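Worked problem 6 (solution included).
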Amino acid sequence: MLSPLAVLYGAVAGLRRRLYRTGILHSERLPVPVVVVGNVIAGGAGKTPVVQAVVRELRQLGWRPGVVSRGYGRGTSDCREVLPDSLPANVGDEPLLLARSTGAPVFVAPLRAQAARALLAQHPGTDVIVCDDGLQHWALARDIELCVFNEEGIGNGFLLPAGPLREPWPRSVDAVLHAGPAPRGAEATPLGTHALRRSLASHAVGQDGQAVPLARLRNRPLHAVAAIARPQAFFDMLRAEGLDVADTTGLPDHYDFDSWKPNESGGMTLVCTEKDAAKLWKTQPHALAVPLVVEIDPAFFERLHGRLQAFTGRSLSSASAS
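Solution. The predicted structure is:
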């Protein structure tokens, strides 16, 4: 019944893309390479952990990456830098996580190109921009597109609202990173198709920054809370670590936690995702955040590094020394 609406959605999305490709609508090109990490499905595909992994690896390879994002869920609409002590309500929970966890400069704005211009002005040494989400944000010209898929792949293969797809798949991208089976049509990507391995870190982190080994939590009843696209995945990963998850609370993605109170009975330890921690700690300072670790085939980073070198003319030795 929703197929006619999906056809209409696809026609509008396709027209918009063609208008940018033909130059009728303007795409802004930056003086440094732009890597977009996005997806073609609605909902959470795990883009932000991939951005974390890409930024950290690029820094190890000698690049100086900056991150731009729309800052979904924030209560402001300006262009601003995300600092480690920024409020999630002002910058968004995912940009704040990226700023705290990677050490790279992060800017948010309704238009990613605006955020990128501001970032380069404030941090002129930045030599590559990583865009968190924005695969369909054609106003920012990009040099490399990374498409992320979760375990569900392309679902039923239909466009919104009949299915999960924001645009038809397959489509040309530079690399596909997938947590489940590789989606059909991903085989010919220039930088390859690579599996994502997601796991929890071996420790949780308190508000004071102190690490608590998960092994120390195995004999405690836990109340796990998650305000992410797929909370059950977080709960399942905790249990897979042998933890006693006695109670769970799944909340809408980007929930602000201002009015939420946990069930205090039983003296359970409260654990949450790393993304939720900054918001939850305001009212639950004793909660522990468990980081997510994403592993990607080293061959992917070698190819990404080589592609960026080709764009900039930098050699491996100069990139490593900078």
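Discussion: The first strand starts at residue 34 and ends at 38.
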